[in-house]
UniProtKB/TrEMBL annotation:
It comes from the Bacteria. InterPro entries: Cyt_c-like_dom, Cyt_c-like_dom_sf, Cytochrome_c_Oxidase_Subunit. Residues 1-22 form the signal peptide. Gene3D superfamilies: Cytochrome c-like domain (1.10.760.10). Residues 23-101, 129-216, 236-314, 321-411 form the Cytochrome c domain. This is Cytochrome c domain-containing protein. It holds the Pfam family Cytochrome_CBB3. Keywords: Electron transport, Heme, Iron, Metal-binding, Signal, Transport.
Amino acid sequence: MKNVIFSLVLGVGMLASANATAGDAQAGKAKAATCAACHGANGIGTADMYPNLAGQHADYIVKQLKAFKDGSRKDPLMSPMAAPLSETDMADLGAYFASMDSSGASASTDSGSAPVAVAAAPAAPKIVPDAAAGKHLYEQGDTARGITACIGCHGKDGDSLVLINPNLSNQHPEYIEKQLNHFKDGSRENAAMNQVSMNLSAQDVADLGAYFKDPAVKAVAKTGAAKGAAPVIVAGDVEKGKAISGTCVACHAADGNSLIAMYPKIAGQHEEYIAKQLADFKSGERADPVMAGMVAALSDEDMKNLAAYFATQKVTEGSGTANDIGKKLYTGGDAARGITACTACHGIDGTGMAKAGFPGVANQHVDYLKAQLVKFRSEDRANDRSKMMRNIAVRLKDEDIEALAQYMSSL
Ligand code: HEC
Ligand code: HEC
Ligand code: HEC
Ligand code: HEC
């Protein structure tokens, strides 16, 4: 049985790799800006849940992006990322990440800081991971228990020679364990891997993860350096923005820290996000009669400069109340109800991710936050790319929204 699967997968792999379109790494670089928030500017995931892509096979990357797009591989974060990509985009992105050095260091030090709404690893207090046992299983398999050796498909030390089989070397062990569990329970589908992982015990999964933690295999050493507060670097002209911000003062205050709960604070918000909102108000993609009037006469240049000005202002403290219900939903989501953890996009501290277009939500007025979640839920606000917010908001009850808004404002 195992030999049949083996040759089948190997054969298909060769074929598919021979047919793959060669991408343009240079073009891929430009398209990868949104990916960096999670997969790192150097292709090394910024947290354990974000797989490293540097040095991964281009063919494998393309295959996964297609799978996320057509829904055969599901992930609340990646599905919306892959949805707008064309075949050319995918080929270019694959070529770009494949060209990167896989031995880079993660930009993040707080690897555990971004939990998502996936079922937590089953609490298994008795399991002590054994890297040596993992190595043995990886190289030899266990015929008696019907477990195929991994080395045949994934290569010595996890460097696979088959272009459509992923490299496992230099991958986060946590990510490897999660994938094995998903193949095992069928939530990630692949004929070969579903078969291989079927007989893996929780101990085996932990051992295999530990094997990839072994520095001899996983050469990457995370830097211990602290990140430090990054200065706000803007592209627009702050002075020009300030000069034309007079019309905004009545509602958003001179420094963007609005004093009225229904008007959002825009101080310290990401430049990219502010500029996008202004453009969306102008095009009508985000419908608001008040703001539409405000932006009607603004040029693209004006919007960029206003965004730069407000982005460089410091936000004042929010008045929300930290609460357990909000905190739980915000940091962990609710897998049973299909609610992705907000941390995944808006960050553990609520500061968002500028490059990916995820706004800061910390310190914002409670009333405004509530109003936006309600608008996303009813689709009165529909300017979120790939329905990222609408798909989540539709699952939120009024009491969730209340608790979340209070919590976000308190961050
Ligand atoms: C908001 C965070 C986030 C962003 C932004 C993001 N990804 Fe991902 N990506 C993930 C997560 C989480 C996974 C792992 C999914 C899983 O557990 O199955 C993943 C998995 C992948 C994989 C599969 C890797 C593997 O080893 O199987 C590829 C390829 C990928 N992402 C490419 C991209 C590209 C290209 C972009 C930019 C267009 C991008 N991602 C943007 C979070 C993100
Ligand atoms: C018959 C070939 C084959 C064997 C044997 C095999 N794998 Fe795989 N593995 C694959 C293929 C093909 C994929 C990619 C699946 C896809 O396209 O979604 C994969 C994917 C994976 C992934 C996900 C990687 C990622 O970046 O998302 C992990 C982890 C993994 N295998 C671990 C193992 C381990 C551990 C073993 C041994 C117990 C093993 N595999 C045995 C073919 C194999
Ligand atoms: C008369 C009051 C008023 C004035 C004046 C005004 N705004 Fe607004 N602004 C609002 C309201 C109300 C909203 C929230 C709309 C909604 O609920 O979607 C908003 C939303 C915004 C947002 C979106 C914030 C977010 O977090 O998504 C930005 C950016 C913004 N305004 C910038 C400006 C700028 C720049 C000016 C000056 C050119 C301006 N506004 C003038 C009332 C005003
Ligand atoms: C997959 C990424 C993603 C996840 C997960 C996510 N958001 Fe968002 N959120 C976004 C994006 C993107 C926007 C901005 C859309 C736009 O371009 O206008 C946004 C906007 C918002 C806004 C409006 C901010 C403003 O200033 O107008 C609020 C409030 C919000 N999100 C709350 C949440 C909460 C609460 C959760 C968890 C229950 C959550 N988000 C989960 C991506 C995400």
